[in-house]
Design brief:
The complex is a heterodimer.
Chain A lengths: L1 H9 L9 E6 L3 E7 L5 H5 L4 H16 L3 E7 L1
Parallel strand pairs in A: 2-3
Antiparallel strand pairs in A: 1-2
Chain B lengths: L1 E7 L2 H12 L7 E6 L14 E7 L2 H15 L7 E5 L4 E6 L5 H5 L4 H18 L4 E6 L2 H23 L3 E2 L5 H12 L4 E6 L6 E6 H8 L5
Helix pairs in contact in B: 2-4, 5-6
Classes of the chains: A alpha+beta, B alpha+beta.
């Protein structure tokens, strides 16, 4: 899952080296903290949050299939 | 493969410049040193520049690479990826024989649309121009389109027979467009839209009824 988020996000931004995804596993919910360069945040979120929404849809679907729940947090 | 030849002072300088210009990582391209060049001798003879040929994957190969990797990381098993060029900047990606197609499509194509959006953003970033990718699973979109138009055709027939208008359920903009275009071909019926946003619906009505309805606008 972490690789999936990293792969997608790195292809979207100007500075792929600054992308960091941290996995915080909880009891029921796994939180993925995505850190990006300030200038790249807009690209990760997209127009009206469309790109962020699409990433969330994908990680929700993939986790749900494994019987887990996932949350994506985008941090500057 | 797309080839680019660049010249400069040293091998590493050219590669660094190339990577920045094209926004690529080391693993994304291959290169070949055509001419190592020379520094010149005691500044008496002018140095010869280094010449390097770069090989970048072309659009279709890149689309395939992105699609393959994303599907693999999503743990999706499938037959093969079929990429077709539809127009100048339009490509269709169809994934054949997906093991769990329902999963990849999602509720009302939600997951399919999300993957499509991300692949579009990724390739646009790579190409630095707007391409349009249609991402599909076993021709799901075409099948849905035909099913929708079949249903609309039945409803239009009903409207013609009974002379009463019928309101469809709320549809997304792209589907409403298809319905409008489809009904436009039939002279006996007309369409109208009511509602807003997510509750926007199409009303199919007999053509003669609509003459009254559309006139007041000109006053």
């Amino acid at each position: 899952m972490k690789e999936l988020i990293e792969y997608i996000v790195k292809a979207l931004v100007d500075d792929p080296s600054s992308i960091e995804v941290k996995e915080v596993a909880g009891d029921k919910i796994t939180i993925y903290e995505l850190r990006a360069n300030k200038a790249d945040i807009g690209k990760v979120i997209g127009k009206r949050g469309r790109t962020a929404g699409a990433i969330r849809t994908i990680i929700n679907a993939v986790s749900a299939r494994q019987g887990k729940r996932a949350v994506l947090e985008i941090i500057e | 493969m797309k080839t680019i030849v660049k010249t400069g002072k040293s091998t590493s300088a050219i590669i660094a410049e190339f990577m920045q210009e094209n926004n690529v990582n080391m693993e994304n391209f291959k290169f070949e040193v055509l001419d190592e060049g020379s520094k010149g001798f005691l500044n008496i003879f002018a140095g010869k520049p280094t010449k390097i040929k770069f090989l970048l994957p072309d659009v279709e190969e890149k689309i395939k690479e992105y699609t393959e990797t994303v599907l693999k990381l999503m743990n999706i098993n499938y037959g093969q990826i079929d990429i077709q060029k539809l127009g100048k900047d339009t490509y269709k990606i169809d994934i054949n024989k997906v093991e769990d197609a329902g999963f990849l499509i999602g509720k009302e194509g939600k997951l399919l649309n999300s993957v499509q959006h991300l692949l579009n953003q990724m390739i646009n970033k790579y190409e630095k121009r707007a391409l349009k990718l249609n991402f599909d699973v076993d021709n799901y979109r075409d099948r849905r389109k035909n099913a929708l138009l079949d249903k609309v055709k039945n409803i239009a027939d009903k409207v013609k027979n009974h002379g009463k208008s019928i309101t469809l359920e709320p549809l997304p903009a792209s589907h409403r467009r298809l319905v409008h275009q489809f009904i436009e071909k039939d002279k006996q019926v007309r369409t109208m839209t009511i509602g807003d946003g997510h509750t926007k619906r199409i009303v199919i009505m007999p053509a003669k009824n609509n003459k009254r309805g559309s006139k007041p606008k000109s006053n």
